[in-house]
Amino acid sequence: MARLTINGKTTEVNVNPSTPLLWAIREQVGLTGTKYGCGVAQCGACTVHIDGKAVRSCIMPVAAAEGKQITTIEGLASGGTLHKVQQAWIEYQVPQCGYCQAGMIMAVAALLKDKPKPTDADIDGTITNICRCGTFQQVREAIHAAAKA
Ligand code: FES
Ligand code: FES
Question: Which pTM value belongs to this model?
């Protein structure tokens, strides 16, 4: 058993403490916006925020997330208003298949919190998520747009 606070709501999950957080979020709590891609911290599809920082949930044990504020893509909008990154994603029509995009958006939202006006070098150094559809150019444009919003 572990107690997780996800998107402001505390839930008990019945998993081994070493279970990756990703599986607790998806299979126990039923929030399936966070995706499984590689399982080895390479692709970023599973990115969530832990206490405001972007974390790849496929390699974080549930035990390490207890007592922390976990935010998933389902909790990024606030009070019915989309986060500015989500708004820019719509405006710039970033997603193609969409599979990587929840993780991409979570990584970008964390970047903009740390660096409100990121340079291309900041983006290249921080947004290492992999998109098999090749949306990288649209991602970059939408990040700059969100930074101006
Ligand atoms: S599934 Fe976590 S980084 Fe790929
Ligand atoms: S939009 Fe298809 S993998 Fe990124």
Answer: 0.97
C-alpha span between 51 and 33 (Å, rounded):
19
CA of 40 to the centre of ligand 1 (A): 6
Q: Is 42 in the pocket of ligand 1 (CB under 6 A)?
A: yes
Task: Give the residue-averaged pLDDT of 8-16.
Answer: 96
- Ligand 2 atom with the smallest distance to the CA of 132 is 3
Tokens of 10: 């505390």
Beginning with the edge strand found earlier in the chain, give each strand of the sheet holding 9-13 in spatial order: 9-13, 2-6, 69-71, 47-50, 53-56
Residue with tokens 């039923």: 30
User: Residue 101's closest CA among 1, 16, 116, 93?
Assistant: 93
| Cα dihedral sign, 87-23-46-10 | positive
